[in-house]
Amino acid sequence: MSMAPTDKLKNLFKYGWVILDSENLKYTNKLKINIFKKVQKIFKIKNNNPDYVLNNFHKVVKNLGEVELNEKKVKLIRSISKNEILIDLIYKSIKSTLTDLLGNDLLVQRTINIVIQPPNDNNPTFPHRDAPPNSFYEIVLWIPLVDCDSTKSMYLINLQDTKNSLDKLNKKDAKWNKFINNFKEKKKFPKIKFGQILIFLPYVFHGSEKNKTNETRFSLNIRFKSLFTPSGKKFPLHFFRIFKISKFTDMAIENSKKENK
């Protein structure tokens, strides 16, 4: 018997984020293998073990100069970011949950974001919220290609702590450093394995810290929203594209065109 959406997603509604198992590992594995092959090709890696290469990426590419390494990273990100096959594999990995949350008429972010964070990388992501300016009606999917825990993962601040922090920030004498300190102890670093997907709301604070583990983090993130919900301050079709339209909506569009001729 399948789990009711309210049970499966109760932590999303309570805390602002939830970790779910992939609904179809076949597609999640294809996603990982497709990206691994791109990594192999661009970085000319002979090792055929995706788990070893992705977790130890910093060791595998250690002989590359900084300029060449960055050029190849940019090439990899461009290769992945607008790949519709990869977007479809993400969707199929979590299809029923997306339908439960957003329905059958979907927009998807035009680009897949990929993060490669080696050990001791000095470019963590500062705490932030996507909405605003993004839409409050989006959901964010965070998909690890390797097992992530502690500072190899990202962090989130739950809904109530986000609200409390914002209340303090809105005071006249509020200072950013004090604001950051207010929720320093509230950060949660999800322990998430490959084959699981983190879904979070765009209006909770999130970010990352210096990766203090001895492995590289490879992760993807992408956003979905219903076609018929508000789009925030960004022009929707610059940031999103139409991904799925239900038969009902398609019929309505066609018949309304005929009526309005």
Chart the SSEs and their pairings:
Layout: H1 5-8, H2 10-15, E1 17-21, H3 25-43, H4 50-55, H5 57-60, H6 66-81, H7 84-93, H8 95-102, E2 106-109, E3 113-117, E4 139-144, E5 155-156, H9 159-169, H10 176-182, E6 196-200, E7 206-207, E8 217-226, H11 236-239, E9 240-244, H12 247-259
Antiparallel strand pairs: 1-6, 2-8, 2-9, 3-8, 4-6, 4-8, 5-7
Helix pairs in contact: 3-6, 3-7, 9-10
Description:
By secondary structure, the chain is α+β, with helices and mostly antiparallel strands. The protein has a single domain, classed as Jelly Rolls (Sandwich), CATH 2.60.120.620. It is 41% helix and 17% strand. The chain has twelve helices and nine strands. The chain has helices spanning 5-8, 10-15, 25-43, 50-55, 57-60, 66-81, 84-93, 95-102, 159-169, 176-182, 236-239, 247-259, and strands at 17-21, 106-109, 113-117, 139-144, 155-156, 196-200, 206-207, 217-226, 240-244. Strands 1, 2, 3, 4, 6, 8 and 9 form a seven-stranded antiparallel beta sheet that branches. The chain is globular, with a radius of gyration of 20 Å. The protein starts with a helix and ends with a helix.
Kindly, what is the distance between the CA atoms of the first and last residues, rounded to a whole number of angstroms? 48 Å
What's the number of extended β-strand segments?
Answer: 9
CATH class: Mainly Beta
Q: What's the oligomerization state?
A: single chain
Strand count, sense and closure of the main sheet? 7 strands, antiparallel
Second-tier CATH architecture:
Sandwich
Radius of gyration over all CA atoms, rounded: 20 Å
The percent range for helix content is 40-55%
Q: How would you state the average pLDDT, rounded?
A: 90
CATH topology name, in short, is Jelly Rolls
Number of domains: 1
Please provide the ordered H/E string of secondary-structure elements: HHEHHHHHHEEEEHHEEEHEH
Strand % is 15-25%
Helix/strand-derived category reads alpha+beta
| CATH homology group | q2cbj1_9rhob like domain
Q: Helical stretch count? A: 12
**Low-confidence sequence ranges:** none
